[in-house]
Write a structure and sequence with these properties.
The protein has 268 residues and is α+β, with helices and mostly antiparallel strands. It folds into 2 domains: 6-192, Beta Polymerase, domain 2, CATH 3.30.460; 196-262, no CATH class. 59% of the residues lie in helices and 16% in strands. It has helices at residues 6-33, 50-59, 67-70, 84-95, 148-164, 170-192, 194-223, 227-243, 246-263; strands spanning 42-47, 75-81, 103-109, 122-132, 135-147. Strands 1-2-5-4-3 form a 5-stranded mixed β-sheet. The longest helix is centred in the last third of the chain and has 30 residues, at 194-223. It starts with 5 loop residues before the first helix and ends in a 5-residue tail after the last helix. The structure holds ligand 0O2. Ligand 0O2 binds next to α2 and α5.
Length: 268
């Protein structure tokens, strides 16, 4: 391959990251719908820029003709978690899909085997099949799973690494290593109050879901022409919401659900 048609070559990579974004975001949505703690906080994807691909190929002495065979992180998915424990939950979720909609090629645990730079993350390299207008293609993709604290550190370090282009001054390297340890200390400390944080999040989520259901049920009264009832329930809801008692909101929603059944309307 002498001249690379970058647009054409990179299209299936974009398709792979788009599909994976939807799949991992759906897992998060499912947890939220079920009012459970989602180990996935944020999903981000990217296709490596052409200049980054060329830099990596240069660094590794990879000829142009071998770029797509050897560089495995052209497609990238980054999953950010709140807690270290969640990272391993996400790893398990991915392992559970192995052989189904993706194939795991390699796993690298840079949390238990921290890089000398201080870098921590869990990497999983997968093959993901996309179906394009020209046929099926197996796309390699690197999934990086890390906490918010690890991500904060890696983002800062990445920019400095770029700035110094492999010649980072020793004092800065040491500072960053110390920051990585401090940041991991924060992750460890946060982990000890994980259950309490999750409990609080659950209460907030339950309340949000409940309010959503109540407002949908009230809105449905409008669609079936019960305007007077809609206004009455709306006023009642505002008073109850200000009171802030979640049990009362539950009972109120039960009343609305019974009425929805009576009028044969559904909030879905
Ligand atoms: P970008 O811009 O994020 O894509 P290599 O790059 O050859 O050392 P390899 O074998 O491809 O590494 O795999 P590895 O070690 O799993 O690293 C791949 C990616 O992990 C890197 O991609 C970074 O995103 C991240 N990473 C690895 N080590 C470090 C580190 O010390 N600091 C930071 N900030 N990130 C790291 P790219 O291509 O370097 O960058």
């Amino acid at each position: 391959m002498d001249i690379i048609n970058w647009k054409e070559e990179l299209l299936p990579y974009k398709q792979a990251t788009d599909e994976l974004y939807i799949k991992f975001s759906s897992i998060k949505k499912e947890y939220i719908e079920l009012e459970q703690h989602s180990p996935i906080e944020l999903v981000q994807t990217r296709v490596k820029s052409i200049s980054s691909i060329l830099d990596k190929a240069n660094k590794r002495d990879t000829p142009l003709s071998k770029i797509f065979e050897t560089i495995e992180d052209i497609a990238g998915v980054r999953i950010t978690c709140k807690f270290v424990e969640d990272i391993y939950k996400v790893v398990q979720l991915i392992r559970d899909r192995d052989g189904k909609d993706l194939i795991i090629k390699e796993e690298e645990d840079y949390i238990n085997n921290t890089k000398s730079s201080g870098y921590r993350s869990y990497h999983i390299t997968i093959k993901y099949k996309v179906i394009t207008t020209t046929g099926c293609k197996e796309i390699p993709c690197e999934i990086q799973i890390r906490t918010m604290a690890m991500n904060f550190w890696a983002t800062i370090e990445h920019s400095l690494r770029y700035k110094y282009n492999g010649n980072m001054p020793k004092h800065l390297k040491e500072k960053l290593q110390a920051c990585a340890e401090a940041s991991f200390q924060l992750d460890t400390e946060m982990g000890t109050i994980r259950d309490e944080i999750i409990q609080t999040q659950k209460i907030i989520q339950t309340k949000e879901n409940l309010v959503y259901k109540i407002l949908k049920n009230i809105q449905n009264l409008y669609y079936i022409g019960k305007i007077e009832k809609m206004n009455q329930f709306n006023r009642e809801f505002i008073d109850l919401y200000q009171e802030g008692d979640i049990d009362k909101l539950f009972n109120f929603n039960n009343k609305l659900e019974t009425m929805a059944n009576l009028y044969k309307v559904s909030y879905m």
